[in-house]
Amino acid sequence: MTKKKTACLAVVLIIALMVVDQVIKIWVKTNMHLYESIWIADWFQIHFIENNGMAFGLSFINKYVLTIFRIVAVVVIGIYLRNQIRRGARSIYVVLLSMLLAGAAGNIIDCMFYGEIFTASSPSYISYLVPFGHGYSGFLTGKVVDMFYFPLIVTTWPEWMPFVGGEEFVFFSPVFNFADACVSVSVIALFLFCRKELATLTIGDEKPKADADGHNEADSSSSESEADSTLSEATSHTPNA
Question: Which of 21, 110, 180, 205 is catalytic?
């Protein structure tokens, strides 16, 4: 695949994933009450919650700090992705980096704009769009919409277990969104299939490698070309036997 086609693939994939993420979030936010659940199967439900923090509902960092960190991370990933495309990186590496970028950017949109354009969600009523600036919060402080919940195993801890005996146990209790899934899947796949690329992470352009004598590859190639040219000239002036 040419570099131009790879770049187009990355752009299309990033836009498509971000659109899917936002369509799901906006539908949930404008059609469901907060904490409402729609059961798809015994092990899967659409469960609407909002959070102020990180992926999977975690929250232990200041909201402004977290949002700014996400923005910086997206910029860094974008620069790195551009450079990898220019170097002719493998398609799978570009695809996974694009997924990572789209997922990281998806939750930034919630933080930046949802507080400005939506009313607050509540168990009593459904949120709706309002004129920009008349929402439930300010810029960078909007809440992230989560909805995917997979309670694969729901049981009770044995009574003899210390501290948690008799309490409910749910295997895989985090509630997450499509952007979180993109980040998680891409990170896992990168470690599984792109370990070689991860071992040589760099944002700037790579410099030619130097040989044992301190000469780099470009100098060596130039020297070889000059040597070949000199040899050709000498051969052309050699009398025929």
Answer: 180
